[in-house]
Specification:
By secondary structure, this protein is an alpha/beta fold. It is built from twelve helices and five strands. The protein has a five-stranded mixed beta sheet with strand order 1-2-3-4-5. Helix 9 links the parallel strand 4 and strand 5. Helix 2 crosses helix 5, helix 4 packs across helix 5 and helix 7 runs parallel beside helix 8.
Length: 299
């Protein structure tokens, strides 16, 4: 089925509130603001302003819970409390090592045929390193938040590039974090996910992920050729290493361009030089590979 003709892609009507939803939206938002007023320290003021100014930040919770106002309110309160406890607005580019960007484990780029921004996740780059888990979660959350804010009610797309993935890259804790991020904290943002180059032996794992992701997406596609990818992503927007025509350097995207190196960050977060050298060695090959791929070269 061609994604361009998929009824799920009807942006013009899907997320415009019906008269009934508009009534629900106003009720849930009013209750939310009443709850916040009783416990303001657990919420960011800018997030409260966001809810007041943008209907989507209430409607998305109502849609996710299929019109159940009590569930929508409960999830909405939980999501905005999490944003404060996680420190979403308390960090900036100086709190994330630029090696995360240079290794290109996850990065935003381009749009699908419906104008939805795309987030790429190169699974083979990921490693489960306990000391770096929180940093990577913060990095991923920052990108998702940025793209979610950019896309608004039209949503965004995830491309999981599974090329070269092995058992070393499988981390159920991170998968659970990603699922919570997309389902609980940013519901109804993800429109569909593409899995590119998934080995047959690993497809059952990704089928499980589809079940966990639930209705955050309505299409979960396996694409193992350039032609299949082009059903979703225009060739001019598709990265050259994936068979497209785009020469975007995904190791140097603007959002993290001025981030410090891991060596510069080490003293602030209590890492020794020996730890810095160890972690850098793990990702050194991925950084070199990403630079070649960003230039359209094979590895």
């Amino acid at each position: 089925m061609d994604a361009n003709n998929n009824s799920m892609d009807s942006i013009s009507n899907e997320n415009i509130p019906s008269p009934q939803e508009l009534e629900q939206l106003n009720r849930v938002r009013l209750q939310f603001l009443e709850k916040v007023a009783k416990d303001p320290e657990r919420f960011y003021p800018q997030d409260i302003d966001l809810v007041k100014a943008d209907d989507w930040w209430t409607l998305r919770f109502i849609k996710w819970n299929r019109g159940n106002e009590d569930k929508a309110l409960k999830q909405m309160l939980s999501a905005f409390k999490w944003r404060k406890s996680f420190g979403l607005h308390d960090r900036n580019v100086n709190d994330i090592p630029n090696e995360f960007a240079k290794a290109a484990a996850i990065f935003p780029h381009g749009h699908d045929y419906k104008g939805r921004p795309i987030i790429y996740l190169r699974v083979k780059v990921y490693r489960k390193i306990q000391q770096l888990n929180l940093f990577f979660q913060q990095f991923v959350t920052g990108i998702v938040n940025h793209i979610d804010m950019e896309s608004g009610r039209k949503g965004y797309v995830f491309v999981f590039d599974v090329t070269g993935m092995g058992m070393i890259n499988i981390d159920f804790d991170f998968l659970q974090f990603l699922i919570s991020l997309l389902q609980t904290y940013y519901p109804y943002g993800l429109r569909y996910a593409i899995c590119y180059n998934v080995p047959r032996v690993l497809r059952p794992l990704w089928s499980m992920a589809k079940i966990f992701l639930g209705s955050t997406e309505r299409t979960f596609r396996f694409c193992n050729s350039v032609d299949e990818l082009k059903k979703y992503i225009p060739e001019k927007s598709l990265l050259r290493y994936m068979g497209g025509e785009c020469d975007f350097d995904f190791t140097d995207f603007e959002e993290v361009r001025n981030a410090p190196s891991v060596s510069e960050m080490a003293p602030k977060f209590g890492f020794t030089q020996a730890e810095v050298d160890k972690y850098f060695k793990i990702f050194e090959g991925s950084i070199a590979e990403a630079k070649l791929l960003s230039k359209g070269q094979t590895v």
